[in-house]
Amino acid sequence: MVARKPVKRKLTAKQQEKKSIEFSKIILAMVMSTYFAGVLLGGYIVFHSSSELSALLTFIGAPVATAIGFYYWKAKNENVSKHTMNRIENTEGDEQP
Predict the structure, then answer these.
(1) pLDDT tens per residue, the chain (97 residues)?
(2) DSSP string, 45-73
(3) Which DSSP category does 3 fall into?
(4) Interatomic CA distance for residues 32 and 6, integer angstroms
């Protein structure tokens, strides 16, 4: 008896869209959720003692600012490469005199 290879099914557009969540978006969402939890905790701390607020905001704000900056830098570089490829594809048939 010969073993058969499993048949790969084609995914529908909705299934493909569901699988295509980028890793950087997951990390950004996790960092932002930590930020909002920190804001709630910070509100509670300020209500009781405002002397600890600056340390808490620095501890939460620095990683969030770094994550957002990295995400925007990554998205910018991806878009630059996409625009460059579109320009190359659009000008392949054109000949300059």
Answers:
(1) 566 666 666 666 666 656 677 887 888 888 888 888 888 888 888 888 878 778 777 877 888 888 888 888 988 888 887 778 777 777 766 555 5
(2) HHHH-GGGHHHHHHHHHHHHHHHHHHHHH
(3) P
(4) 41
Residue 32 CB contacts under 8 Å (≥ 6 apart), including other chains = 64, 67
Q: With 0-12 CB in 10 A as exposed, 13-18 as middle and 19+ as buried, what is 24?
A: middle
Quote the CA–CA distance of 5 and 66 in Å, as a whole number: 46
- The token pair at 23 is 């890793």
DSSP string covering 13-55, please? Answer: HHHHHHHT--HHHHHHHHHHHHHHHHHHHHHHHHHH-GGGHHH
